[in-house]
Amino acid sequence: MNTAFINHIASVLNQPIINYAPVSGGDISETFKIDTAAKSYFLKTNTSSHAQNMFQTEKLGLETIKNTNTIAVPELFACGNLGKTAFLLMEFIDAKTPSETNFKTLGEHLAKLHKTSADNFGLTTNNFIGSLPQQNKFYKQWTGFYINQRLLPQLNLAKTNNLLKDSEIPTEARLKEVLTPLFKNIKPSLIHGDLWGGNYVIAKNDTPYLIDPAIYFGHNEVDIAMSKLFGGFSNAFYKTYQNIFPFDAFTETRIEIYQLYYLLVHLNLFGRSYYTQVKHLLNKYF
């Protein structure tokens, strides 16, 4: 960050910045810890052409989760830009290593979030999954939403990027044939949308926080699927969650099908290292 940008953030906060340093925060944006005499802040910056929109939808996601009064999110202070650099400024959460009790609380609070429902699947606005656009057109039925707003956009993008051949992409009719019997009696839940291990934080006071959401009203098991994709959370988390949202005979199958979406996203973001996993699931189910 240059001096002009630091001075701009100081003016937004209306207090001098006494220290700032980069912190690990993901692959999409640059992230910093900002210290003032009063408190510490977490700053995300990005110079891509869609960064302002990306941060605005992230802000909306955090505010939407906050308004459910079910699970904590960092307090937001500002969202804006200076020249070509967009930024999102929020509370810095001083994190700790989660205990089994912390994972139980996270599972309980996530389940409470998932009890927030709506009449349709989708969201009033499109948003992002990583840096990729994520469509959220309203659908009455989960099957139609998941095929047309999740799988097909990523499959077609992979084809455009020469990461999948046309012959490897199932038709809409085939997707519907396979998914319809698996997607019965599913009701819309407000979900985080990108719940891997880097997108929750346990504060030192034991409060679980969600960060970096990609929210929409979808099937609650989508969050469970993402949580399991890269190693999984503690068993205490899943046991507590299942006490509120029991799994059924098709849950494990649906989890793999929901993981296909995230693997396609990773294929499109990071390249062919994810091809084998994507191809395996396409062959297995379609």
UniProtKB/TrEMBL annotation:
Pfam families xref list: Fructosamin_kin
This protein's record includes keyword Signal: no
Record key words, sorted: Kinase, Transferase
Keyword S-adenosyl-L-methionine: no
GO molecular function: kinase activity
Name of this protein: Fructosamine kinase family protein
The family this protein is said to belong to: Belongs to the fructosamine kinase family.
Stored SUPFAM superfamilies: Protein kinase-like (PK-like)
InterPro entries, per database record: Fructo-/Ketosamine-3-kinase, Kinase-like_dom_sf
Origin: domain of life: Bacteria
Signal peptide segment: none
